[in-house]
Amino acid sequence: MNPDDPLLKILACPLDKGPLVLVLPERDAAAEVDQTLYNPRLRRRYPIVDGIPQLLPSSGEQVTDEEHERLLRQAAP
């Protein structure tokens, strides 16, 4: 998924129905998850597996304060 993908405009968090942010992997680190969709309001991230966003509530993962800051820095413009 790329930052210009029109699908990003219609994808929403399954919990609060708000917009999600595409987070791209860090260039110099081996990322555990290549790309992820992030809800900064609830501090939940949803994986993208083989180009398909996993947007079931059970697929979401709560993140720590440090992870929240890192994800916001990595967010696609």
From TrEMBL:
Q: Name one GO cellular component term.
A: cytosol
Q: Which portions of the chain have biased composition (kind: Basic and acidic residues)?
A: 65-77
Concerning InterPro entries, the annotation shows: Trm112-like
Q: Where is this region: Disordered?
A: 55-77
UniProt-recorded name of the protein = Trm112 family protein
Protein source organism: Streptomyces spectabilis
